[in-house]
Amino acid sequence: MDGTLSRDPRPAFYAIEERYALNGRKYTRRGILAALGATPKAAEAIIPHERTLAKPKVDRLKMLDAVGVNISPIFGVFADPSGAARRAISAGMKGRPDAAGRSHAGVDYRLWVVDEPRLVAAIHRSLTPRSILIADGHHRYSVSRDHHAKTKGPGTDAVLTYLVPDEDKGLVVLPTHRIAAKSLLARAAALASLKKARSLAELEKLVDKSRNPYAFGLIEDGFFFGEPKPRGCRSGLAVEWLGSQLLAGVRPDEMSYTPDAALAARKAKALGGAAVLVKPFSVAQVRRAAKAVGLLPQKSTYFFPKIATGLAFRPLDAE
Questions:
Q1: How far apart are CA 233 and CA 244, in angstroms?
Q2: Are both 143 and 27 inside the same structural domain?
């Protein structure tokens, strides 16, 4: 052991500040690395919102068995209407950070080890009564539950998680656009009224500003703005309507995803298929949708930026 990695001597939270830019605007996001319960009782307060796939879970379970460490944190958000959690997290960010750096994605990180007992207790109190919406890491959380059920080992009853208050001004959720390796224009015309747009920028504005929750953009031999008639999607989100209607005949192997509209357009052109632009939505809308219908289609949301791997590790023999 050369000291490159070492265990902290006391139980701790890790306060994280991220500074990043998106579409020419600067953001600061603040959250906390914590151990999120993975027992059946703890899972009652956890709200997943996307369906999972079998193969990624098999791969992640094999890695967890082999490594015995939470390497990459999942990402959760929670409501903090009183501001208690935000105040407690800010209190843990006093003084110089214990680590700082920039990720490959250009996000500047600062990290504080919060192990002072009074602050640890304050953060714990502010988080305990909250329900947690999984923003990213549905497969990893499901695998952590399966792993604990299988092993019952000390420390397997929780998973490393990055938690951010819903109200944090740096919390950004992007729509995940769909790319289909096949034509969708005829089906879109049958399901919605289509209006031609002159450019990608104009199409994005039309989708963003539309009051129709199922409005979408279609890029195939031009730019088209689509407004379907509401068809009883209880979630109120375009991703559910798109999955059950416009994209119903597209196989999983014919589909790919990106939050970048320009990239979606380029990929669709290269494939000879179509790109579907999804209407943006808020964290509150995601919560309401999850409550109304349970699980949404895969890749429904993209909480930006993803939390970096390697800020802290959590050994599964930790108690």
A1: 9
A2: yes
Burial (0-12, 13-18, 19+ Cβ within 10 Å), 315: middle
Phi, psi of 317 (to 5 degrees): -95, 5
30 and 140 housed in the same domain: yes
Q: How many domains does the chain have?
A: 2
**77 shares a domain with 49:** yes
22 within some domain: yes
Range of the domain at 185: 177-299
pLDDT 10s per residue in the chain (319 long)?
566 778 888 889 999 999 999 989 999 999 999 999 989 998 888 888 766 666 667 778 787 777 788 888 999 999 999 999 999 999 999 999 999 999 988 999 999 999 999 999 999 999 887 889 988 888 888 888 888 888 888 788 999 999 999 999 999 999 999 999 999 999 999 999 999 999 999 999 999 999 998 899 999 999 999 999 766 677 778 888 898 899 998 998 999 999 999 999 999 999 999 999 999 888 888 888 877 777 777 788 889 999 998 899 898 876 5
